[in-house]
Design goal:
With 267 residues, this protein is an alpha/beta fold. The chain has helices at 3-29, 42-45, 63-71, 86-93, 115-124, 127-143, 145-159, 188-212, 220-223, 251-265, and strands at residues 35-40, 52-53, 58-59, 75-78, 103-107, 164-168, 215-217.
């Protein structure tokens, strides 16, 4: 090998080693100046996984906390709260969002359409009664929720005019490959009805997110095959202690479902 070739090879090798060595550090510091705020309901708070605390049940294993630990932003506020609706985001969460916020994430809408009452009703009622409850929720989703979401998204943009806003959807709640599901014996018909209602809400969220110019992080695909009662479930079935964990993601659901979906939605 000639001296010129040897020098060139050393230069290329050195450059590659420098790039490889620098890449992890660059990735670790890419959000070092980012001010991050999480908004929304129990799915944004981290309900369903260990580490919940306070009246809002904000958890250390929800997707906002997991993303923060991995990326080390300059600041982080989790304002999400168990049971929150779009009205609660407007009244009790957005007033604490600063105009210099760089990143906002939000999961909201499930409580507006009566997610908890619908699941509770379906658990103890007949298939027909469950279908009627879901039909009421679907009507509200289609007629009222577009305006609710539009108002919420506009307010987020007003409070954080320069922020990247990522809207995270809801997963399909139930596995539908097994005959039986959980302590309440949720029938296949009920599970299909509830999944259909969740799908309807997600489609409205998707539509209004795009209309607002925000980024959608849709978790439905990654949760496929991992609904409540699946062999490898990422969603809690009906739980007694604590009851609030019922039909919320497990720690694996947040870490393997929500976190990578959020990460993929960011630069």
């Amino acid at each position: 090998m000639s001296r010129r070739t040897t020098v060139l090879a050393c230069f290329v090798t050195s450059t590659l080693l420098t790039f490889v060595a620098a890449t992890p550090a660059d990735a670790a510091t890419s959000y070092a100046t980012t001010d991050y705020v999480a908004l929304g309901d129990s799915y944004a708070a981290g309900v369903g996984a260990p580490g919940q605390s306070g009246l809002c049940l904000r958890g250390s294993n929800g997707y906002p906390a997991l993303w923060t630990r991995r990326n080390q932003p300059a600041s982080f506020q989790n304002l999400a709260c168990n049971g929150a609706t779009t009205d609660d985001v407007l009244r009790f969460q957005l007033p604490f969002v600063g105009t210099k916020t760089d990143l906002v994430t939000v999961t909201i809408g499930g409580n507006d359409v009566g997610f908890v009452p619908a699941v509770a009703s379906c658990t103890i009622s007949t298939d027909a009664a469950c279908a009627r409850v879901v039909a009421v929720a679907r009507n509200y989703t289609n007629t009222v929720m577009p305006g609710k979401l539009d108002a919420t998204y506009r307010a987020i943009r007003q409070r954080a005019p320069k922020a990247k806003v990522v809207v995270l959807s809801y997963p399909m709640l139930f596995d539908t490959t097994s005959a039986n599901c959980g302590v309440g014996g949720m029938s296949l018909a009920k599970r299909r009805a509830l999944n259909s209602g969740a799908q309807n809400l997600d489609e409205v969220i998707k539509d209004r997110t795009r209309a607002a110019g925000f980024t959608l992080a849709d978790v439905r695909g990654v949760f496929a095959g991992h609904g409540a009662c699946a062999a490898a479930s990422w969603i809690n079935a009906l739980t007694v202690l604590p009851l609030t964990n019922s039909f919320h993601p497990t720690a694996t659901g947040y870490a393997s479902g929500y976190l990578p979906t959020l990460t993929a939605a960011l630069p």
